[in-house]
Protein 1
Amino acid sequence: QITLKESGPTLVKPTQTLTLTCTFSGFSLTTSGVGVGWIRQPPGKALEWLALIYWDDDKRYSPSLKSRLTITKDTSKNQVVLTMTNMDPVDTATYYCAHRPIPFSPGNWFDSWGQGTLVTVSS
Amino acid sequence: DILLTQSPSFLSASVGDRVTITCRASQGIANYLAWYQQKPGKAPKLLIYTASTLQSGVPSRFSGSGSGTQFTLTISSLQPEDFATYFCQQLNGYLAFGGGTKVEIK
């Protein structure tokens, strides 16, 4: 059974850097084809993909946020970390991490999600 | 970047109704599309990937179709547990999500 859980601060101040950790179980990020992504959702709004890291350490970022994002993995701890710099109130959202399965055909979908963590940006 | 536009953004339906939700891509994406269901306060749940492949464990009343720029999610007979918000997602390059379609009880 795959599980993922996000952790990090619930409140950050504008201009600060947000660091979120995704701790997972039930799969290994050393397995060929596997990935972990981050997606966020402002209250009452749509989902927004942020970043994706693959088993081979290849990384993909949302073009609009690429300059502010860094995604890394620690396979020994089964963790993926997302940092987002220069936080702003518009970044207030629930942040999810999710498992990208070994694809039987090309594409990046997410079949297991964490419960999400609400991050509020306010002074 | 590819944009995904869902329609309608809101629909009201009754139990037993056949429901169709559309997702239109701003440029052709072959079959690189997934559908998710999200209930209030919960994480999204994968329903369909590569436009028409049903995720394991998802009821067969859900189906997906389309390719290129036009895709549909169909619920053949709406059940009480299906009242939720549905999102499409592009599966290649920039992993855009659609704006969502909220399905409410009529």
Protein 2
Amino acid sequence: QVQLVQSGSELKKPGASVNVSCKASGYTFTAYAINWVRQAPGQGLEWMGWINTNTGKSTYAPGLTGRFVFSVDTSVSTAFLQISSLQAEDTAVYYCAKDVQYDTIRYWNYWGQGTLVTVSS
Amino acid sequence: QSALTQPRSVSGSPGQSVTISCTGTNSNIGDYDYVSWYQQHPGNAPKAVIYDVTKRPPGVPDRFSGSKSGNTASLTISGLQAEDEANYYCCSYAGRYSSFGGGTKLTVL
């Protein structure tokens, strides 16, 4: 069965970096895009962008700064979200989500369990 | 501020129907048929209940239906059940990007 398993919660200090992983199983990893969505505490969902797992090309949401980078390691069917120069407002649950297509955004039929990133001094 | 506008809350009694609206623009909902809706219970990941405006993913009851008119999409839940109480988010494709509505809390009275 399809599963997306994300790495565990992180507590980081302002200015640090964090790497969130999303390991896929149960399907051909390079056949479908991975999207990233975040949710600040008590807030709604925010689409961050997506990565074509076949080509490695990323598209980021307008306004998302260069501190956020998507990547994939196809040898282990894993997508990564790296956030650098962490700020308090980056505190959120970060979700990866599998699209039903590989080359565009359509809808997300499987989601990871979410990774809570807390930024606090 | 979200690109898509949803009511903050709606409510209904068991067995009734409720409709949640999602208003966008000519650049998103009005121009594409890739509108989806996600249900999220507190503490859980979102789950798709409608995609491509009107389609239901496997396993989603036919009590959930979607529609679109102009720049506004709607999610209707008929025969409300207690387990439908959750937050609902619309989402629309907009060229290279996607965006969510601010979310609607559905309360089953």
